[in-house]
Amino acid sequence: MEAVLWLTKPRMEYAQFRQDLFGFLDTMAGAVGPVRTSLWQRKLGLGAGEEFVLRISDEGGERIAEAIQWIGTSKANAALHASLVTHGSLALVERVA
Question: What is the CATH number of domain 2-93?
Answer without folding.
Answer: 3.30.70.100
